[in-house]
């Protein structure tokens, strides 16, 4: 694989972009930062599939495409299977000698939002990973069904206000904890899973390159702070992402072959979870006195998860 | 390199196994499949061929039928020959992807062993699943017996992959009645079959890196109508392509197929229109009635369901007096699909023969030649009276009080 | 407004302003091609050297989305490339590890580039859409004293 140098940002900036502007994503959208970076991480030919969602609907509306590589969208659930089918075709045609450029390297990448990854497309992703297809699945996790106006998904964290689990007079919003896709994918047999965030560009780029170079199914959970549905100013996408990673609400770690867990980012100063929650409109109701226990529960849970990650990293299991 | 099989001049295959062999001979690149009764043996036969070294392509056993068709679409967009098989609930599960496949204009061959749709759950043969896919935008062909399953599969690749068409194609067969009934099948040799099907020509494929291509874009109100119209036109344009493929197939096999198969219609007074194995039963009933009772009976079996052979049906039926359109699917509050479409074709004739609707055989309920003869006699009564003498729609072969719906204005 | 390193096709038309052709002229199967000709080595070519097709969003402009725009100040910039890596709209033009400026055809005015700029004063600041680059730079603030 032709690896773009990610030694430092100046080196990285010499790549040739393959994700074009004038797409329809919201100003400040992190999806675009993540997709741009993935496509800049490799000079290889890419075959990319995408589930229905913000990314798909903003980058391929006839008569425009923002993709400079081959790309396919079928439906809401099945980007993983589209990639799997294309990968199987690649193997068949390579064996039969019917490829136009048989020696050209190619990587198969599937994108999906949290709605299509955690919920409606879960079976498709699980099947593709279980069958061991050589592809990388990247979840653009903005913790809601953003494309349709901000409904809850199983990625929505407790206490968040969404349109289908809104905060109101008798409710503090989402009642369920965020589903742990990292653990699920690791147990499902993914060769490599990693949780990344665009504010840590180098960490993310290294995770992408590792996934692309591994022969097997890889799953990447990428934090995609959503200005529109999380309710913060578009200019603050990276600031919010910093709060997420530095408060350990969104810890960055990887699991290799389902057993070897490595924490990939240790904040110098760990920020209180409250700071992360306070910066977003979707959590502002949690600062009412009657919801104080939710804030406490948040901090406890984040602390417990961080403790767990460190112990597992140490135990090497 | 895949090994070939030396087939005999006459093989004894059921519809499923005939399909499996046809798929093997077509040298498919990717089969993405999921098992469901009664189509499962197609996939099992194919898997067995794989395990014994008779297939070069990839075989992906996915985790649901929706994933099967999704995998086929992804693989087809990556520029190769693709096929799968399903029935009933699996067909229903993949319906969303059927529309996506045809809208994306990707040639894929789908074998459907027609089976009832739940609820109640039933694994036997009827046409509910076929009817569910009516508007999915696929070319749809119907096989009445195992030989035709084999032949239609080979023709399906040619039709779907034709450069002017480029649409996915279904090959229907009756679940259990055809799929599990062993019959004599005269196959082509592996070489002749592949020569007929031809080498796959990739078009707009994702693995041609000199031309990156975007598949499955969204269209808003400014563009959707034009794309769907173009797709509909392509499906309509399949009519002459199908005829030319059938003509070519006749040269290599000696078997002649038409978009509408007609039996004894030249002088027929009464005609039954049906699909699947019922066509063959109806032919026997018609012959017996001619011999025994002098009723001039004929049978019309649409070989191509989509694009609906409006012209050929109209021409086949315009001179008879009474028609019985038989639907093997629960009509869900209306007249049956075949009745509706046949009536539309017949309405466009000068004489407008009478048309009535028979709902039959749901969930694998047998329909005997005795029952079909009774239908012909009712049609004869209509023809003689010059009007419909029963309710327009009747359920036949049903236990319990007579069940019928829809009256003509002059009716009882 | 100067256009930094543009391909003549960049930002040719507003989204929605393309010619509305009939059913017989739309692309087959809603398929879209990204480039006009052989794009085998497109990953080795810069945007200004690519043969974009009229179906590539590169040829459209979203300038009308903006009410405010970032202005770039070459004299202060240290070429850290933060703005380049985090621009959601591929609108920071960087060549040979140097920032050249902003692609105003594709910039939506989100302001992320300003936020992530580390210099003091910042090398990118938001101004009203109508202001010229020269006037903006003339108004550039001086170094901020950090609060203790």
The fold-level CATH name of chain A is Rossmann fold
Uncertain segments of chain A are none
| Sequence of strands across the biggest β-sheet of chain C | 1-3
Structural class of chain A, by secondary structure, is: alpha/beta
CATH architecture of the largest domain in chain C: 2-Layer Sandwich
Please report the total strand number of chain A as a whole number: 10
Provide the CATH architecture of chain A.
3-Layer(aba) Sandwich
Structural class of chain C: alpha+beta
Number of domains of chain C: 2
Integer tally of domains of chain A: 1
Sheet bearing the most strands of chain C, described? 2 strands, parallel
| Integer-rounded radius of gyration of chain C | 18 Å
- Rough shape of chain C? elongated
Large-scale geometry of chain A: globular
Short summary:
The complex is a heterotrimer of chains A (317), B (412) and C (148). Chain A is α/β, with parallel strands linked by helices and 317 residues long.
Walk me through the structure.
- The complex is a heterotrimer of chains A (317), B (412) and C (148).
- Chain A has 12 helices and 10 strands.
- In chain A, helix 8 links the parallel strand 7 and strand 8.
- Chain A is globular, with a radius of gyration of 19 Å.
- The model of chain A has no long low-confidence stretch (mean pLDDT 96).
- With 412 residues, chain B is α/β, with parallel strands linked by helices.
- Chain B has 2 domains: 243 residues, Thiamin diphosphate (ThDP)-binding fold, Pyr/PP domains (Rossmann fold, 3-Layer(aba) Sandwich), CATH 3.40.50; 146 residues, Rossmann fold, CATH 3.40.50.
- In chain B, 39% of the residues lie in helices and 17% in strands.
- Chain B has a 7-stranded mixed beta sheet, with helices on both faces. In chain B, strands 10-12-11-14-15-16-17 form a 7-stranded mixed beta sheet, sandwiched between helices. In chain B, strands 1-8 form a two-stranded antiparallel ribbon.
- Chain C is an alpha+beta fold.
- Chain C has 3 helices and 7 strands.
- In chain C, the strands form 3 sheets. In chain C, strands 1-3 form a two-stranded parallel sheet.
- The N and C termini of chain C lie far apart (40 Å).
- The model of chain C has no long low-confidence stretch (mean pLDDT 93).
- Chains A and C meet through helix 1, helix 2 and helix 10 of A and strand 3, helix 1 and helix 2 of C.
């Amino acid at each position: 694989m032709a690896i773009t140098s990610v030694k430092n940002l100046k080196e990285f900036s010499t790549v040739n972009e393959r994700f074009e502007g004038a797409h329809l994503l919201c100003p400040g959208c992190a999806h675009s930062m993540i997709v741009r970076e993935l496509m800049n991480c490799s000079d290889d030919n890419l075959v990319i599939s995408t589930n229905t969602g913000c990314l798909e609907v903003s980058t391929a509306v006839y008569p425009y495409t923002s993709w400079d590589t081959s790309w396919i969208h079928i439906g809401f659930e099945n980007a993983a299977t589209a990639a799997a089918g294309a990968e199987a075709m690649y193997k068949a045609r390579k064996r039969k000698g019917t490829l136009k450029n048989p020696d050209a390297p190619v990587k198969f990448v599937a994108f999906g939002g949290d709605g299509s990854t955690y919920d409606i497309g879960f079976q498709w992703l699980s099947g593709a990973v279980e069958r061991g297809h050589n592809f990388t699945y990247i979840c653009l996790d903005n913790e809601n069904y953003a494309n349709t106006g901000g409904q809850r998904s199983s990625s929505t964290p407790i206490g968040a206000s969404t349109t289908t689990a809104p905060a109101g007079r008798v409710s503090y919003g989402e009642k369920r904890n965020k589903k742990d896709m990292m653990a699920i994918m690791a147990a499902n047999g993914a060769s490599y899973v990693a949780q990344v965030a665009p504010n840590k560009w180098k960490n993310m780029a290294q995770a992408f390159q590792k996934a692309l170079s591994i022969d097997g199914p890889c799953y990447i959970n990428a934090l995609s702070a959503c200005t529109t549905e999380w309710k913060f100013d578009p200019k603050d996408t990276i600031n919010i992402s910093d709060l997420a990673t530095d408060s350990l609400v969104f810890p960055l770690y990887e699991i290799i072959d389902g057993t070897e867990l490595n924490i990939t980012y240790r904040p110098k100063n760990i920020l209180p979870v409250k700071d992360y929650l306070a910066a977003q409109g979707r959590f502002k109701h949690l600062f009412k006195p009657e919801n104080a226990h939710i804030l406490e529960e948040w901090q406890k849970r984040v602390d417990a998860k961080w403790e767990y990650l460190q112990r597992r990293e140490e135990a090497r299991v | 390199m895949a090994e070939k099989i030396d087939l005999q001049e006459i093989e004894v295959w059921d519809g499923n196994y005939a399909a499996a062999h046809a798929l093997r001979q077509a040298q498919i690149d990717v089969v993405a499949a999921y098992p469901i009764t009664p189509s499962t043996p197609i996939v099992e036969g194919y898997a067995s061929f794989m395990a014994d070294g008779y297939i070069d392509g990839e075989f992906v056993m996915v985790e649901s039928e929706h994933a099967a068709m999704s995998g086929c679409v992804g693989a087809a967009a990556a520029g190769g020959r693709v096929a799968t098989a399903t029935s009933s609930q699996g067909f229903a599960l993949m319906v969303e992807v059927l529309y996506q496949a045809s809208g994306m204009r990707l040639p894929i061959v789908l074998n459907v062993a027609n089976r009832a749709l739940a609820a109640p759950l039933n694994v036997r043969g009827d046409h509910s699943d076929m009817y569910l896919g009516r508007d999915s935008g696929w070319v749809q062909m119907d096989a009445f017996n195992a030989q035709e399953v084999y032949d239609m599969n080979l023709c399906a690749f040619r039709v779907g992959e034709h450069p002017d068409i480029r649409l996915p194609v279904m090959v229907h067969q009756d679940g259990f009645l055809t799929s599990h009934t062993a019959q004599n099948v005269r196959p082509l040799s592996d070489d002749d079959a592949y020569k007929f099907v031809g080498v796959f020509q990739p078009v707009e494929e994702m693995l041609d890196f000199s031309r990156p291509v975007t598949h499955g874009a969204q269209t808003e109100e400014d563009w959707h109508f034009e794309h769907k119209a173009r797709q509909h036109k392509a499906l309509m344009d399949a009519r002459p392509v199908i005829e030319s493929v059938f003509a070519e197939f006749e040269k290599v096999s000696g078997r002649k197929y038409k978009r509408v198969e007609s039996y004894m219609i030249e002088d027929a007074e009464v005609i039954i229109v049906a699909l699947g194995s019922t066509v063959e039963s109806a032919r026997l009933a018609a012959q017996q009635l001619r011999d025994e009772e002098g009723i001039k009976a004929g049978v019309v079996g649409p070989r191509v369901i989509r694009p609906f052979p409006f012209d050929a049906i109209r021409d086949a039926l315009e001179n008879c007096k009474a028609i019985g359109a038989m639907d093997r699917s629960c009509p869900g509050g209306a007249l049956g699909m075949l009745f509706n479409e046949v009536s539309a074709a017949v309405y466009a004739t000068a004489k407008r023969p009478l048309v009535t609707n028979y709902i039959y055989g749901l969930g694998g309920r047998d329909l005997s030649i005795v029952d079909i003869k009774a239908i012909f006699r009712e049609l004869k009564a209509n023809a003689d009276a010059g009007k419909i003498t029963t309710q327009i729609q009747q359920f036949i072969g049903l236990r319990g009080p007579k069940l019928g719906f829809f009256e003509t204005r002059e009716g009882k | 407004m100067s256009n930094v390193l543009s391909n003549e096709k960049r930002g040719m038309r507003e989204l929605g302003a393309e010619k509305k052709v009939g059913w017989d002229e739309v692309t087959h199967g809603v398929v879209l091609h990204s480039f006009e000709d052989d794009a085998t080595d497109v990953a080795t070519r810069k945007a200004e050297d690519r043969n974009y097709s009229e179906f590539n969003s590169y040829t459209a402009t979203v300038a009308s989305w903006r009410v405010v725009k970032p202005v770039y100040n070459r004299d202060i910039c240290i070429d850290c490339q933060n703005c380049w890596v985090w621009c959601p709209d591929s609108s920071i033009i960087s060549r040979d590890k140097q920032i050249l400026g902003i692609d105003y055809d594709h910039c939506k005015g989100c302001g992320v580039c300003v936020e992530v700029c580390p210099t003091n004063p910042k090398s990118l600041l938001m101004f009203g859409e109508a202001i010229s680059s020269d006037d903006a730079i003339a108004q550039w603030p001086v170094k901020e004293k950090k609060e203790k």
